């Protein structure tokens, strides 16, 4: 039923699809509002109520527990296996595709592309068991890396830590690669916040040419690099036009560098309509995990060694995309644009 150009969802939707909507609603609204919501609640309790001891006690806990997000986190398999994540994966659906066995006697950096607006598929794949990661990659423990600022929000930080997420910082990544044994996969969105501004249907632009830090870390610790490409992640939202050089893009770039996250101007569908809202569109996402690049340990890699490994990785990523693009909805004319 359409009213004023908005297509509303029918009332007689099957329970299964309603649960799927709840699953993706949980991730979307937690990502957008949970952190700031808890921050404002704690400030309100501290400044305007008699319950000021609650935020004070939490702040003491935060100071004590703060390093954990840089020291392997504190994952809970119970949390990772919540039905919410299964429902969220089925909403799109998100599928995790393994192309090759990965040796659990080694450590890895999973280089994930594209970032998308909200990293829906990467969160479902690596910060939960929504797509059965542990069953598909036996012996491999994924650590999704997210902005350090996410771990400054009260309660929200604990939620992220329980999902198996850690800070995307050098000390955090090195801790996992050196202190947690073997069979670890540090999952990094290589393009970062700026790449989110390129996330729109039909876009294959990746911010990677100047992103070489993951290659340097891989060399220092002898960690294999695994290319990961999520076909369909950029199709989940529409963005307003923001071409390079436009006023909108210049303002977005400024705010991204200032705050560390990208102010993408996007829309998807709503809870009760298919036309406009904050939920992603129901479009399939196929996350293809490629073959690991074997990396020999070099304690002090030179710039040339880092650049050579980066070139090898970019070539492997392009090959992965070209090999699978027809299977997952791309056209002959679709190619990666590495920037």
TrEMBL record:
Example GO biological process: triglyceride biosynthetic process
Top-level taxon of origin: Eukaryota
Bilayer-spanning residue ranges: 31-64
Pfam families: DAGAT (PF03982)
Single GO molecular function: diacylglycerol O-acyltransferase activity
Class of this enzyme: transferase
GO cellular component terms listed in the entry, alphabetical order: endoplasmic reticulum membrane
Record EC number: 2.3.1.-
Pathway involvement of the protein, from the record: Glycerolipid metabolism; triacylglycerol biosynthesis; Lipid metabolism
InterPro entries per UniProt: DAGAT (IPR007130)
Membrane topology: Multi-pass membrane protein
Alphabetical keyword list: Acyltransferase, Endoplasmic reticulum, Glycerol metabolism, Lipid biosynthesis, Lipid metabolism, Membrane, Transferase, Transmembrane, Transmembrane helix
Localization: Endoplasmic reticulum membrane
Main location: endoplasmic reticulum
Family, similarity comment: Belongs to the diacylglycerol acyltransferase family.
Name of the molecule in the record: Acyltransferase
